[in-house]
Design brief:
Transmembrane segments: 20-41, 85-103, 115-135, 141-164
Strand content: under 5%
Structural class: mainly alpha
Oligomer: single chain
Keywords: Membrane, Transmembrane, Transmembrane helix
Largest sheet: none
Distance between the termini: 70 Å
Pfam families: Hpre_diP_synt_I
Order of helices and strands: HHHHHH
InterPro entries: Hpre_diP_synt_I (IPR014535), Hpre_diP_synth_I (IPR010898)
Shape: globular
Protein name: Gx transporter family protein
Radius of gyration: 18 Å
Number of helices: 6
Number of strands: 0
Low-confidence stretches: none
């Protein structure tokens, strides 16, 4: 019997997605070192990468980058299949679904900043719904909505502004 080998040859798209996912994973791991005032309140720096991918290469690539980040980031942080992983996954899926719908809004009025805020609110919403259904079987979890809404607004604005600035490209010193 002859041995059978299957060779998978990565495409240029595969390499680009891997590089972008690696950047998002680095931001996720770095963010884990930041002390948090409340559990679950994080800046979501990796979402900057997702927003840039969404704007430049589309929703499909953004989904790949976001999901690779969730799985690899959780694996590297030792949280794969822990409650934090599922909360992150639920938030990411809600955020991606929202971005998938919101990207059809007129770009004239809805850019990286508004998409970032929408995604941040969806992320928090997905996490709170999962927390309520699975971890905290009491409606008291929704008392945290104002705190998380404030965090989603602030971090969504900041991440959206950073993404918009990065998408402008290098600034030339020439006049």
């Amino acid at each position: 019997m002859t041995p059978s080998t299957i060779e998978i040859v990565p495409t240029a798209d595969d390499r680009r997605i891997a590089r972008l996912a690696a950047a998002a994973i680095v931001l996720t791991v770095a963010e884990a070192a930041i002390p948090l005032p409340l559990p679950g309140v994080k800046p979501g720096l990796a979402n900057i990468v997702t927003l840039i991918v969404l704007a430049r290469w589309g929703w499909r690539d953004a989904v790949w980058v976001a999901l690779l980040r969730v799985f690899a980031g959780s694996l590297l942080l030792g949280q794969l299949f822990a409650p934090g992983f599922f909360l992150s996954l639920a938030g990411s899926l809600a955020s991606l679904a929202t971005l998938g719908l919101a990207m059809h809004l007129p770009r004239r009025w809805f850019g990286p900043v508004s998409l970032s805020v929408f995604a941040a609110f969806a992320h928090i919403g997905g996490q709170l719904v999962l927390a309520r259904l699975w971890l905290v079987p009491h409606d008291g979890v929704f008392y945290l909505v104002p705190v998380f809404a404030l965090a989603a607004t602030v971090f969504g604005l900041v991440n959206g502004l950073v993404a918009a600035k990065l998408m402008q490209g290098p600034v030339s010193g020439k006049n």
